UniProtKB/TrEMBL annotation:
Domain of life: Bacteria
PROSITE patterns, A to Z: HTH_GNTR
Domain HTH gntR-type: 1-69
Pfam families per record: FCD, GntR
Organism: Dysosmobacter welbionis
Keyword match Transcription regulation: yes
Protein name (Swiss-Prot/TrEMBL): FadR family transcriptional regulator
Alphabetical keyword list: DNA-binding, Transcription, Transcription regulation
GO MF annotations, alphabetized: DNA binding; DNA-binding transcription factor activity
InterPro entries assigned to the protein according to its UniProt record, in alphabetical order: GntR_C (IPR011711), TF_FadR/GntR_C (IPR008920), Tscrpt_reg_HTH_GntR (IPR000524), WH-like_DNA-bd_sf (IPR036388), WH_DNA-bd_sf (IPR036390)
Keyword DNA-binding among record annotations: yes
CDD domains xref list: WHTH_GntR
C-alpha cells in the first residue's frame, strides 16, 4: 500500500466516524500535508480517490467538502468494530450474494471506455500478482478490482457500502488465497472482464453472482477445516 492509499484510508475513516460533517470543508491540501507529514501529491491523490468514492466534492476556488453519505456509526453497527466473529462474516458474505450481481450489471450498463481500460489495467496487475505468488498484493488488487466495479455504477451508496464491507472482508480474502492458492477467484475476474468488454449485463450479473456464492462457500469450507 503506497502513501496516497494510506492517506485515503485515514481521511475516509475520519469522514465515516464524523470528524467532518456533511457540507463541512476539509482542511486545505497544505494543512493536511503538514498534519499528516506526507507530500502534497499524496494528499491530492487521496482526495481524488475520496471524490471517486462519492465521499467529497471539490468546488473550484473554495476547497473540498464532505458530501451526504451513509452514517459511519450506522454502518459500523451493521459491521462490528474489531475482530469479526464467524457469524458476522457470514452475514456480510450473504449480503454481498444479494447485491453483487446487480451491482455488476449496473456497472456494465454505465461503464465508459476509460473505465473499462482502468478495470482491465487492474486485472493485469491481479494476474501479475498471481504469477509472482504475491498473496498480499493479490488481496489488495482483488479489493481494488471490486471497488472499481462499485465506482463505475456512479452510485455513492453502493460505493460507500463496498468500501466498508471490503475493508472488513480483506483478511478473509487473504486467508482464502493463502489456503487455496493464488488461482482462487481469477477465472471469475476474467469472465467479468469479458462481460464488460461485450457490454453484456446479463453475463456480468451471472458471473458475479456465481463469484459471490463461491466466495461464501469457500469461506464456510475453510471454517470447517479449522473447526471440524
Amino acid at each position: 500500500m503506497n502513501i496516497a492509499e494510506k492517506v485515503f484510508e485515514q481521511l475516509r475513516d475520519q469522514i465515516l466516524q464524523g470528524t467532518w460533517k456533511e457540507g463541512e470543508k476539509l482542511p486545505s491540501e497544505q494543512e493536511l500535508t503538514e498534519t499528516l507529514g506526507v507530500s502534497r501529491s499524496s494528499v491530492r491523490q487521496a482526495i481524488r480517490t475520496l471524490a471517486d468514492y462519492g465521499m467529497v466534492e471539490t468546488r473550484n476556488g473554495t476547497g473540498t467538502y464532505v458530501k451526504r453519505q451513509i452514517s459511519g456509526n450506522y454502518m459500523l453497527n451493521i459491521v462490528p468494530i474489531g475482530d469479526l466473529q464467524f457469524e458476522d462474516i457470514v452475514e456480510v458474505l450473504d449480503f454481498l450474494c444479494l447485491i453483487e450481481d446487480s451491482v455488476a450489471a449496473m456497472a456494465v450498463q454505465r461503464c465508459t471506455q476509460e473505465e473499462l481500460a482502468e478495470l482491465q489495467a487492474i486485472h493485469k496487475r491481479l494476474i501479475a500478482a498471481k504469477d509472482q505468488n504475491d498473496l498480499e498484493a493479490l488481496t489488495n488488487v482483488d479489493v481494488e478490482f471490486h471497488s472499481k466495479i462499485a465506482m463505475i455504477t456512479q452510485n455513492s451508496l453502493v460505493v460507500q457500502t463496498y468500501a466498508l464491507l471490503l475493508e472488513f472482508l480483506q483478511p478473509v480474502m487473504h486467508r482464502t488465497y493463502v489456503t487455496l492458492g493464488a488461482e482462487e477467484g481469477i477465472p471469475y475476474h476474467e469472465r467479468l472482464i469479458q462481460a464488460f468488454c461485450a457490454h453484456d449485463a446479463v453475463s456480468a450479473k451471472n458471473v458475479m453472482g456465481a463469484h459471490a456464492q463461491n466466495r461464501r462457500d469457500k469461506f464456510l469450507a475453510l471454517q470447517e477445516r479449522i473447526e471440524p
